[in-house]
# Entry
Amino acid sequence: MRSTMAVVAAMLLAPGVAVGQGQPIVEIGTNLGVAIQNAGGSTLTHFGAPGQGILGQPTIYASVYAGPSMLVEPQLALNIISSGGETATTVGLGGQVAYAFSGTSTNSGYLAGTAGFQSVSGGGFSDSDFGAGAKIGYRVLIGTSVGVRFEGGYRRWFDSELNEFSIGVGVGGIIHRTR
# Structure
């Protein structure tokens, strides 16, 4: 668990490599789509707008431009649900490292390795899990300020022996280094 938190912290704090003045440095956005979870013969399907993030939850991402073809992306999901005097909290931390085949400054297909950590607590119950997987997608730039990604992925959650399949669309605003 400590190693998971260390990896996530490193991804959150990883500085982008300077790619020149006026160049994009980070893209901040969210996803919408479907996440299908399968374990022990049962299936749970989530559709969300936003959604398709860590175990189907609404997730915020920040893709840091870490070179001409690399994106390092921390992700965060938080849900607090309260009903009948009981409160349940889920926290998801994740990240991915993506390689853009044609570079980060143009429309490009990409391949990403992903990792995620999920913690659930409430009503005297607490549990956590770690997952890892991969995504493949295509990212389209709209002008210089918006990135739209179409992606599909798989993540295996180890303790729960859960298989997570996802397909969705991500939309993010691109922040540029000032001149």
